[in-house]
Amino acid sequence: MPKAKGKSRRQKYSYNLNRKRLYRSARRRAAPRIACSHIRHAWDPAKSVAQNLAEMGLAEDPNKAVPIPKKKLLGMEVESGGRVQGKKIVRKPYVVNEMEYEASLPEKKSNTLSRDLIDYVRYMIQNHGENYKEMARDEKNYYQDTPKQIKRKINVYKNFYPEEYKDFIASLKPEKMDVQ
C-alpha cells in the first residue's frame, strides 16, 4: 500500500502560535505544591501565597523577615531608615505551633546495616579474630575486600551495634579457652 502524500515531510514550525500565553495560563491554574501537612490544611486557595503565609505567621521572603544588618561604614554605624513596620495579624497561629512541636521531637535513628554485612563481619571475627590479612584471603570474601576494607566494615559494625559487638566478643572468649 502506498504512503499518504505529505507524511514523509518534516513538520513546519508554526510561527503564529503564541506559546508563552499557553504556558502562562497552564501555570496559573496549577495549585502550589505544599509539602507540610499543617500548611496544606490551613491553605485557602482563594487567597494569594503572600496572604496565606502572612495569616499563618510565616514569612514569604526570608530576606525581608530577618534583614541582614548593615555593616559598619568607616567606623560609624549606619542606621536603617527609621521605618516602623506594621504588625501583621496572625489568624492561624496553630500552624506555626504545630510545626515547632514537630521540629522539637527527637529524630528516630534509622541507620541499620544489612543482615548480609552483619553475618559477614561476625563470620570473619569468629574465624580469624583480628587478623585482617587472613580475612582478606578467606574463601567467604566474595567481594575480594582488602584488609583495610574489612577493618573498616568491622569498625562500622562496632559503631552501629556496640552492645551487640561486646556480647559477641564475650561469647567468643569461652570457646577459645576450651580449645586450649
Architecture blueprint of SSEs:
Elements: H1 19-29, H2 37-42, H3 49-56, H4 62-65, H5 93-104, H6 115-128, H7 132-137, H8 147-160, H9 162-179
Helix pairs in contact: 6-8, 8-9
Brief write-up:
The protein has 180 residues and is an all-alpha fold. The protein has helices at 19-29, 37-42, 49-56, 62-65, 93-104, 115-128, 132-137, 147-160, 162-179. It has 9 helices and no strands.
How would you describe the overall organization of this protein?
The protein has 180 residues and is mainly α. Among the domains are: 19-66 and 87-104, no CATH class; 115-172. 52% of the residues lie in helices and 0% in strands. The chain has 9 helices and no strands. Helix 8 packs across helix 9 (162-179). The radius of gyration is 33 Å and the shape is flat. 5% of the residues are buried. The model has no long low-confidence stretch (mean pLDDT 81).
Low-pLDDT runs: none
Helix content: 40-55%
> How would a crystallographer describe the biggest sheet?
none
Count the strands?
Answer: 0
Strand content: under 5%
Helix tally?
9
Question: Structural class per helix/strand content?
Answer: mainly alpha
Overall mean pLDDT? 81
The general outline is flat
Pfam families: Nop16
Main location: nucleus
Family: Belongs to the NOP16 family.
Subcellular location: Nucleus, Nucleolus
Features of the shown structure:
180 residues, 9 helices, mainly alpha, 52% helix
